[in-house]
Amino acid sequence: MRKRRKRRRKKNQKRWVPVAAGVIALLLVGVGIFFGMAFERVDLEKEAVVAFSGFDRKGSVSVDVAPKEGYEEFYSTIDVSVSSNGALSNGDEAVVHFSYDEELAKELRLMVKAPDKIVPVEGLPTATAVSLDELFSGLSITYAGVAPEVTIEMANVSEDPFFGNVSFLVEEPREYYNEGDLIKIRAVFNEEEALRLNYDIEQGENGYEKSFTVTGVDTYLKQGSELGSDQIAALSDAGKNLLHDANDYGLRIFSEANLMPIWVNNQLTFQWKNPSLLSMYFHTLKEEAADKGMHQNDMECVYMATIIQADGVSCQAEVVVRFTNLIKKADGSYDLSIDTGEIISASYRNSNIKQLLTNDDDYVTEKLDLI
Fold first, then answer.
1. Which pLDDT score, from 0 to 100, does residue 349 have?
2. 162: buried, middle or exposed (CB in 10 Å: 19+, 13-18, 0-12)?
3. Which pLDDT value is given to residue 353?
4. Predicted pLDDT at 355
5. Which residue of 9, 10, 35, 332 has the lowest C-beta tally within 10 Å?
6. Strands 334-335 and 314-324: what pairing?
7. What are the contacts of 17-26 at 24+ separation with CB within 8 A?
8. Nearest-angstrom CA–CA distance, 53 and 127
9. If we measure between CA atoms, which residue out of 359, 362, 222, 177 comes closest to residue 288?
10. Distance between CA 350 and CA 318 in Å, rounded?
11. Which residue(s) pair with 168 in the sheet?
12. For the residues of 227-271, what is the DSSP string, one character each?
């Protein structure tokens, strides 16, 4: 009895073996079909197309991955980074790294392979070296005005199709410049175009920047002692030539001297006679007063002169003539501003004149040594 049962079990087991094998085979086929048909395969390493640009030592790799139809949204999430991009040399190996939206890939049933792509760098051309001097060679700087009130104007005069399109910008621009001031100018250009032309443009300490010194300009005179004897004589003579009619000061001077003025035909008759130079004072505007809109310098010539009226009554008085904004030209000559000369004061009392000459907090006063 037991032997018969054992025989039946063995027969049943033999019957189930092929059935089980068939079921397993069907499952495997189903899983294969599911994974093979339900998921789209994406291999970013193989799909990526690379191209080189730039030149040896400043090469770049661009990477393009064309989207598969129907999966544009996924492909738009792909981000590509390249090691040392922009500074590649022939013989280097650029590493292209991919990242993407993994959640979206799952939603779209994409099987994505994205290992790093190793790209040997080769075929980059040799660069043409361009110095800072060459970059700035088209820059023309024009100065206008008189230091310390110089303005600048810049223009690019290069006819080269690349260098002629370089823009020049002043760093920390000011309204006015003085002689000797340093102007920092930055060159701005199309760097992509420079790479396309294989231009390796030199950079200084502060990039594409170069400094220029304000030179070769007219300057307002800073010291009266710079003037020679010829200039002193010219100013002295110009001041004397202004001493004719004295009616503007006659009444006050005669009053100070206790003299009686007269009128002829209801008019005063005061005249200056025989002026002689006593002293000269040069005034320079202080830096802290530069924004007050005052003249930059002046020369005040002090004369002793006779003031006389029609009846012959006269006295001695001191007269001050001022010339403003004397200029030392770029060529070393002088513009003494003779046309600015004017009598600014006259007095019988010397104390009044001294106070006028030295009592101005906005100017530095220098008395000239006359020979």
1. 85
2. middle
3. 81
4. 76
5. 332
6. unpaired
7. none
8. 12
9. 362
10. 7
11. 187
12. --HHHHHHHHHHHHTT-SB-HHHHHHHHHHTT----EETTEE--E
Amino acid at 224: G
Beta bridge partners of 111: 41
Closest to 236 measured CA to CA, from 246, 249, 227 = 227
Q: Quick check: helix, strand or coil at residue 58?
A: strand
Paired residues of 342 in beta bridges: 322
Alpha-carbon distance 295 to 283, whole Å? Answer: 10
- Cα–Cα dist 135/354, whole Å: 58
State the residue for tokens 């621009």. 173
**To which H or E segment does residue 47 belong?**
helix 44-47
Q: Which residues of 147-235 form beta strands (DSSP E)?
A: 149-156, 167-170, 182-188, 199-201, 209-213, 219-220
Provide the pairing of β-strand 139-146 with 128-130: unpaired
* Predicted TM-score of the model (pTM): 0.69
Q: Residue 343: in which H helix or E strand, if any?
A: strand 342-347
Q: Which amino acid does the sequence have at 225? A: S
Distance CA 199, CA 203 (A): 12
Task: Give me the pLDDT at residue 290, please.
Answer: 87
**Pair of tokens at residue 185:** 């100018």
- Those residues of the chain that have pLDDT short of 70 are 1-38, 371
First to last CA, the chain: 157
Count the Cβ atoms, other than its own, within 10 Å of residue 37. 8
What residue type is assigned to position 4 of the chain?
R
Q: Report, in this order, helix, strand and coil percent for the chain, each rounded to 5.
A: 30, 40, 35
Task: Evaluate the CA torsion angle 43, 44, 46, 47 in order and state its sign.
Answer: positive
pLDDT value, residue 31: 46
